[in-house]
Amino acid sequence: MNAMNPEHLQLLVTRVMPYGKYKGRVIADLPGHYLNWFAREGFPPGEIGRLLALMHELDHNGLSSLLDPLRKR
């Protein structure tokens, strides 16, 4: 997955976590410790897993602010 694909970045601010402790929360708004947990334990399969991995990468590298312009759409 190309991290800078605009469609994937847009999904981070629109796609909602479908289950778990933060069910119903937009992926971009998940806390870092939760993303870190997935990074340690393994990301789920499919699109959600890919988006969680991408969000972890952005969060871990201090790039979450890249999503701010997308939130305002």
Stretches where pLDDT falls below 50 for ≥5 residues? none
- Which class best fits the helix and strand makeup? mainly alpha
**Amount of beta strand:** under 5%
Count of folded domains: 1
Helix content: 40-55%
Distance between the termini: 23 Å
DSSP summary: helix tally: 4
Largest sheet: none
Shape: globular
Name the average pLDDT: 92
SSE order in H/E notation?
HHHH
Strand tally is 0
Radius of gyration, in Å, reads: 11 Å
Task: Walk me through the topology.
Blueprint: H1 6-14, H2 32-41, H3 46-60, H4 68-71
Helix pairs in contact: 1-3, 2-3
Task: Give a description of the structure.
The chain is mainly α. It has one domain. It is 52% helix and 0% strand. The protein has helices spanning 6-14, 32-41, 46-60, 68-71. Helix 1 (6-14) crosses helix 3 (46-60) and helix 2 (32-41) packs across helix 3. The termini are far apart. The model has no long low-confidence stretch (mean pLDDT 92).
Short overview:
The chain has 73 residues and is mainly alpha-helical. It has helices spanning 6-14, 32-41, 46-60, 68-71.
What tags apply to this protein structure?
73 residues; mainly alpha; 52% helix
